[in-house]
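Need tokens for this chain, all 84 residues.
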Amino acid sequence: MRNLRKLGVPESVAMKISGHKTRQVFERYNIIDESDIREAGRKLNEKQKSNALLEIAFGHGSGMISPKTGHCGHSEAAIPQLPN
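Here are the structure tokens for all 84 residues:
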């Protein structure tokens, strides 16, 4: 039971595989120890760090097009006019 849970198998699937028909019996064998709690904390920290790396700063200097001027935030170059 514990090994299936550690592999990320959904509990409902693990219960079917192991033959546990009730949640009470499943929980009896679904032992959680200190190493499980530490591992969960490590995974949470990794996820938070990876999310922080994905944050993008918006605003001045971000390369976004300004709705008022039509110019990019990082460049003051004029936009060429196309002939009619």
